[in-house]
Amino acid sequence: MSQSVKAWTRPHDWAEVVLGVVLALSPIVVETSAAAAWTMVILGVLIAVDGLVSLAMPGMVYGEWAQLVLGVLVFISPWVMGYADLTGAAWTSWVIGVLTVAAGASALPVATSAHRTAGQH
User: Fold this and answer.
1) What is the pLDDT of the chain when averaged over all its residues?
2) What sequence ranges are listed for the domain SPW repeat-containing integral membrane (predicted)?
């Protein structure tokens, strides 16, 4: 069985889980507003949960697309939610957003391959 088809083995998805947890916990260590804190916690939890679901079901391609969307939302959230002036929170969002998009984009071909392999009986 290929590494990409085997559950709980894909490093891209583990990276997504770690990025989500870091984002969700970052309001503990960086200065935030209420909007920034809630945005970071909610999006961080969504990223981590989606990463866990992708780990459990490696052939689920739409989970990787969700990661791309979540990464973009995290990246633009400092401007949309009005916390671009909070340097720590903004930079955390920008860096985690870019890394989440990168992890999702790199996992997309692997998930697509796993999806195709899982469909063959």
Assistant:
1) 89
2) 12-105
Residue whose C-alpha is closest to residue 81's, from 29, 18, 36:
36
d(CA 55, CA 38): 26
d(CA 83, CA 57): 35
Q: Residue type at 25?
A: L
Whether the Cβ atoms of residue 6 and residue 48 lie closer than 8 Å to each other? no
Instruction: Decide if pLDDT at 51 tops 90.
Output: yes
Alpha helices in 9-121 (DSSP H): 11-25, 34-56, 61-80, 87-119
Residue linked to tokens 């459990």 = 56
62, burial (CB in 10 Å: exposed 0-12, middle 13-18, buried 19+): exposed
Tens digits of residue pLDDT in 24-41: 999 999 999 999 999 999
**pLDDT tens, residue by residue, 76-88:** 999 999 999 999 9
pTM strictly above 0.70: yes
Q: How far apart are the first and last CA of the chain?
A: 13
